[in-house]
Design goal:
This is Nitroreductase. The protein is α+β, with helices and mostly antiparallel strands. Helices cover 33% and strands 17% of the residues. α2 packs across α4 and α3 runs antiparallel to α5.
């Protein structure tokens, strides 16, 4: 699958089979996430891999739109590490790029995933911080729920020319 096919066919998957995701595959996924661009090439991220069923079931207690984690074999919490930043505040962009790489890698491996938002919702941040024992310098951005898909999703062309502005906002090409 080339990169354009991956981007155009990746969809959020919220239902998974019981089949586990191998350690080798997790390593490949994290390697792809870590290839993301980052401000000053600081790579100011940390990843918490969660396989423990009890922890995956707890996620819905503080992250209500991540309840599907209870039925998945794997979750990866993408976090920014402010102690590693060269340019303070850019951890959000860095981790968002890493998350997108992670989602595309998941799709390329024939798996399914959904990015569930954590930052900037204080209750969700606190829940993941407590559950995962995050130090103060590690900020949770998002939680990817990952597994073998138990649903099929169709892609659609989302290009919308009304959202494109040429040489300034509100200007159309022509």
């Amino acid at each position: 699958m080339d990169v354009f096919e991956a981007m155009h066919t990746r969809r959020s998957i919220r239902k998974y089979t019981d089949e586990p995701v191998s350690d080798e595959t997790v390593r490949e996924l994290l390697g792809a996430a870590m290839m993301a661009p980052s401000a000053g090439n600081a790579q100011a991220w940390q990843f918490v891999v969660i396989r423990d069923r009890a922890l995956l079931e707890r996620v819905k207690e503080f992250s209500p739109y991540a309840g599907m984690a209870a039925g998945a074999p794997l979750g990866i919490l993408v976090c920014g590490d402010t102690s590693l930043e060269k340019y303070p505040g850019y951890w959000v962009q860095d981790c968002s790029a890493a998350m997108q790489n992670l989602l595309l890698a998941v799709h390329a491996k024939g798996l399914g995933a959904v990015w569930t938002g954590v930052h900037p919702i204080a209750d969700r941040e606190a829940g993941f911080r407590a559950m995962c024992g995050l130090p103060d310098n590690v900020k949770p951005l998002g939680f990817a729920v990952i597994g073998h898909p138990a649903q099929e999703r169709r892609s659609e062309d989302r290009f919308n020319p009304e959202r494109v502005h040429w040489d300034g906002y509100g200007k159309v090409r022509g």
